[in-house]
């Protein structure tokens, strides 16, 4: 569908609007009565902006990010499926750089604005991963932002998968940023392999960080002291949290990431990212994450 057709079929006056985004890619804008806004590219079902009612941006998108077909956007909230990280498939799977379709938009009785995006397998995905699938991402904007990701197996054989909402948060200063709620949680450190347990009540950042916390608590809080705000991250149906900041040297190796941008971002990702889930024929899996901005 072109922009005019999308707007005619799925637009909602003053609440949902489809426009041309960077690189000519199609994006949907959501606006809540409170003034909160969200922006979602159909390319990857990728959320690139969430502004709270006072107009404060919560998500980080790199100034060096590509906005073009076939290349993932760097930042925001990428959708990862069916592989997390490196492996036999392209990094982070098959769906970050594919065009998703709009299935529905809605304005709830409570004023929450939502959009549902959908993606199904095709010849290109089956050439890399021989499984039929149907994915659905529901983005709901109210006083909080809620994402629900659903995986369906319409095929005749089970398949294993990993998935994540790879959320990049914008912070004023990584040196004044901390994460609460992971104390006592087992983790694996991608930089220093081997199991360990988080002993700190407050996770802080002074070097490259790349950890997966398995069987993580369902609620953690990111304290962005430089912006005088906290972001509560609450998950359900998802067992893991990844915490990532590339720091100095890795930032220089990323061609779609500014050398100094590590100072102003941190990823706190929710999903199934270690042992794959196995989905039976005809079954479906759903996981949800809600983000709430709190006073600092």
Written overview of the protein:
There is one protein chain. The protein has 296 residues and is mainly beta. The chain has a single domain (3-295), classed as Beta-galactosidase, Chain A, domain 5 (Distorted Sandwich), CATH 2.70.98. 7% of the residues lie in helices and 45% in strands. It is built from three helices and 21 strands. Strands 6-7-8-9-21-18-17-12-15 form a nine-stranded antiparallel β-sheet, with no helix packed on it. Strands 5, 10, 11, 13, 14, 16, 19 and 20 form an eight-stranded antiparallel β-sheet that branches. Strands 1-2-3-4 form a four-stranded antiparallel β-sheet. The longest helix is centred in the first third of the chain and has 8 residues, at 3-10. The protein starts with a helix and ends with a strand. The relative contact order is 0.16. The model has no long low-confidence stretch (mean pLDDT 97).
């Amino acid at each position: 569908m072109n922009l005019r057709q999308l707007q005619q079929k799925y637009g909602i006056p003053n609440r949902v609007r489809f426009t041309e985004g960077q690189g000519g890619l199609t994006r949907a804008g959501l606006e809540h009565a409170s003034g909160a806004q969200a922006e979602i590219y159909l390319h990857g079902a990728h959320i690139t902006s969430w502004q709270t009612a006072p107009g404060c941006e919560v998500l980080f998108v790199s100034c060096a990010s590509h906005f073009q077909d076939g290349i993932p956007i760097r930042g925001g909230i990428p959708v990862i499926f069916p592989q997390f990280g490196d492996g036999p498939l392209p990094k982070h799977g098959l769906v970050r750089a594919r065009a998703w379709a709009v299935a529905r938009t809605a304005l709830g009785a409570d004023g929450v604005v939502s959009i549902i995006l959908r993606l199904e397998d095709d010849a290109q995905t089956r050439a890399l991963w021989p499984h039929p699938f149907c994915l659905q991402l529901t983005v709901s904007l109210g006083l909080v932002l809620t994402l629900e990701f659903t995986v369906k197996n319409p095929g005749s054989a089970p398949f294993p998968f990993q998935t994540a909402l790879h959320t990049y948060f914008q912070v004023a200063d990584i040196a004044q940023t901390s994460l609460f709620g992971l104390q006592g949680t087992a983790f694996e450190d991608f930089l220093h392999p081997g199991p360990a347990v988080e002993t700190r009540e407050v996770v802080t950042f002074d070097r490259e960080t790349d950890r997966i916390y398995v069987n993580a608590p369902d609620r953690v809080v990111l304290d962005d002291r430089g912006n005088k705000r906290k972001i509560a991250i609450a998950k359900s149906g998802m067992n893991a949290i990844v915490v990532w900041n590339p720091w100095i040297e890795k930032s220089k190796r990323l061609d779609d990431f500014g050398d100094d941008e590590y100072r102003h971002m941190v990823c706190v990702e929710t999903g199934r990212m270690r042992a794959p889930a196995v989905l039976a024929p005809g079954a479906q899996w759903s996981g949800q994450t809600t983000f709430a901005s709190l006073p600092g």
